[in-house]
Predict the 3D structure of the following.
Amino acid sequence: MKINNIQKKKLYYEMVRIRMVEEKIAELYHEQEIRCPVHLSIGQEAIAVGVCQNLNREDKIVTAHRSHAHYLAKGGSLKKMISELYGKYNGCAKGLGGSMHLVDFSVGVYAAIPIVGSSIPIGVGIAWANKLKRNKNIVVAFFGDAATEEGVFFESLDFAALHNLPILFVCENNDYSVYSHISKRQSKKRSITKIAKSIGVSSLKIDGNSVEQIFIKSGRIIKRIRNFPAPFLIELKTFRNLEHCGPDNDDNLGYRKKSYLNLWKKKCPVKNYENYLKKENYLSNKKNFDIIEKIEKEILQSFNFAKKSKFPPKKLLKKYVYA
Ligand SMILES: Cc1ncc(C[n+]2csc(CCOP(=O)(O)OP(=O)(O)O)c2C)c(N)n1
Ligand SMILES: [Mg+2]
């Protein structure tokens, strides 16, 4: 499968948009008007974009606490997302959920749940419904490396394999669960892709920093799932650029070595793709400037919209929050 010019630009555009949105969230978080915790995906954008560019509107995704990139890549409204972060009634969860509960059924974002591993069985349930309805829609479940340590991960894969469900499990392996390196949590002999295979779920490792590889390889897998329903798991090594939770950099804490940080920062999926597109004459400086200007405008409008929006009515808060 070859990628044409338009697809290349789209992959780039979507990654830059997510990067710029999250950088703006990080900048404005210090104003203390966003009161919910935020888990930024800076460094991990290629996965959300590469996978979601293969999905239709009717396909559904479920995700976890680090979900901004998935929500936006699946077509979620930026205005509604930023409003949600500000706790406003115009938000995608009416301002009651915040950053860790981004949902929008109209574009297929069915769950974002911060209890590690908990959205995986929900994805399996939706895939089962799709199978019973005999439609061609698929589900993608995004989760981190730590979610594969939860019992529900095994149960979900088992059920999906047993019933040949049309679901793609996407494990974003950024080596860390908060401050704990994977080697402190999992045996060195453990392999996420092999675990999947042992349960009966086909699996593949894909470079989490190459948006084109992700787009092409997950595209093939998604086509296969649509035509011959059966679960598949992909594991993508990636890098969380900032602190686990919050807008800042925590490199000074020392739980990730300088050499590790330097290596991964050099592999930045957005910057490297920009350089590649420019070198190969797919992107001019002028075009890049236009893209950035367009996104800046959209971001400004979305933040203004969110800030001006109203908080949810007390009646609603009482119904769902203090019930
Ligand atoms: C069941 C459960 N245990 C612990 C936590 C606290 N917690 C929140 S995020 C997180 C780390 C999750 O790591 P991973 O799944 O690898 O995702 P990442 O944050 O690296 O994207 C933990 C332990 C939780 N939310 N749920
Ligand atoms: Mg992780």
Notes: The chain has a mean pLDDT of 97. The CA atoms of residues 202 and 232 lie 5 Å apart. Strands lie at 60-63, 109-112, 139-144, 167-173, 176-177, 180-181, 202-207, 232-237. The first helix runs from residue 5 to 29.
